[in-house]
Structures are given as C-alpha cells and as structure tokens.
Amino acid sequence: MDKQAIVDSYEREVFSAMAENKPVVTYVKTIVGKVHLTVLDPYSGKPVPVTLQGIPAPNNPKAVVQIWSTKDNQFFMQMNREHLAAGILKPLTTQEEVVSKQETVSPNTISDDEITEILNKPYMALKNKLNSFTTPAPVYRFERMAEELEKSEKILEAIRARASELELGDEPEAE
Q1: Could you give the C-alpha distances from 109 to 86, 90, 134, 135, 167, in angstroms and in order?
Q2: Cα–Cα distance for residue pair 90/88, rounded to 1 Å
Q3: DSSP codes of every residue in the chain
Q4: Confidence band of 10 (pLDDT split at 50, 70, 90)
C-alpha cells in the first residue's frame, strides 16, 4: 500500500465518522477551570491547541473534545497524558481497541456511576476511596455529586478535608 492510499484510507475513516457524528472517543473535562489540550486537526492532520472551558458537562460543547480516529486518539492520549492521569479529563465513550491499548489506569480515573455507588456505601468505604486519589480533581467531582445527592455534612466535610490535603500536598493521616 503506497503512502497516498494510506492517507486516503485515514481520511475516509475520519470523514465517515464525522459525517455520522460517531467519534471514536469523546472526552469531557472534570474541573470548572480552563483546560488546555493538544489535538490533531482532522482536516490538516497537524497538532492544534484547544482550550476547554465552562461547566464540565457532556452537553456543553465548550467542555468536550471529540476524537475521530484511533490514530488521533493515540496522539491525544500521548499529548495530554498528564490531564488524563490527574483525572482532569475523562472519556465519555470508548472503543474496545483503545481501552485494550491503555497501559495503566490512573487511580484518579473514576466514572460518575462509580462516584454515586461509593457515596451510597458506608462512610469508611468513601474515606478509603478518597485517600486513594493523588490529585484534587476527582475529589471535587465527589463533592459536587455529594451535594447533588444531598449527602450529610459529615460526608461533605470528609470530602472537603481530603481536597484540602491534596491541594496542600499533604498525605492523609493514618487512622
């Protein structure tokens, strides 16, 4: 297969996915602040900077980035690995092939369903999970979800305390 045939095949994959509005993966930011990323432009194939901003929600177009091919996703994961590892970005949809290529899952990666499940478990299960995080981004997601679920003040205080520890760079106290 010559170089032009490979380029044509890649373009067909990307433009077909775009026409059907079926991205390989859609990433959403998990924090309220701006997130600066690098993605491959689907038309030129060149790296371009992208800034996600606004309320982190899947239905907010300024808070999500869509990836249209496995090649683009590999580039995206390589260029933005710190954001992914810190839990600042999370995938909304995944493709089996992309998941199988991921080397290790960060302890800061957690879905909204898992957060809800943990918030409905006993208090110590929540404390253990909070202590496993190494960055404050997923802890803030716990706080937001706990407020939405109207959890007790004790739970909210534990979440805020852990967020504060992570912001200051302190390790959790042994209990």
Answers
A1: 8, 7, 10, 10, 18
A2: 7
A3: --HHHHHHHHHHHHHHHHHTT--SEEEEE-SSS-EEEEEE-TTT--EEEEEE-SS--TT-TTSEEEE-SHHHHHHHHHHTHHHHHHTSEEEEE--HHHHHH-----TT---HHHHHHHHTS-HHHHHHHHHH-SSSHHHHHHHHHHHHTT--HHHHHHHHHHHHHHHHTPPPPP-
A4: low
| Amino acid found at 4 | Q
pLDDT digits (tens, 9 = 90+) for 120-157: 999 999 999 999 998 898 999 999 999 999 999 999 99
pTM of the predicted model over 0.85 = no
Q: How far apart are CA 142 and CA 31, in angstroms?
A: 11
Tokens of 153: 């003040």
